[in-house]
Amino acid sequence: MLSLEEIMERLLVAMAIGMLLGIEREHRDKSAGLRTITLISMGSCMFMLVSMIIDAGNTYRIASNIVTGIGFIGAGVIFKSDKGINGITTAATIWATAAVGMAVGGGLYLAALGACALILIVLALFIRIEQWIERINKERVYTITRRYEPGILLKYETLMKSFHLKFELEKRIKLDDDIQCSWRVQGSKSNQEKLVEALLEDPAIRKFEV
Asked: What are the residue boundaries of the MgtC/SapB/SrpB/YhiD N-terminal domain, all occurrences included (predicted)?
């Protein structure tokens, strides 16, 4: 059986790892910040310790319940907004933090520290890779309302092609003498901005949303 000193040592290590991960989330002003991530790491560690002390032969049962419980917490930080679904990375961080806390509780210090380092690399470095990908391959939905004329769709699709953008017509609605069209457009951020400028300068467009 583990001594009190060993239990406290593992809890302190779990707290330190949770703090490292929590500081990164707090720095980015996420809903699950320093205190939440630290408590998740310590709680997962403690559950693992309890399972080892009470029933060393069936630690997998409590471990599996930790994963289930963490799933509910992770779901609580995911929300939908006008710009899409937010909080998925924070939810994944919560899930990964619980796994690290469980590893510490099981005495796998090196594995836990290595996982912590890799998680921090993913959180700190991969966001820059995502930003780079977004710059070269951004997707937007353009909605244009203007007076209907024959060949009007071809006119704007030719304009999009001139800026080397890929597009897909999503909908077109006839509104009396007007027509409203929406395209899903994909391409580099700079080319998208050029398209926006061209559309804003078009006097025939009555309403433009992006």
From this structure: 11-131
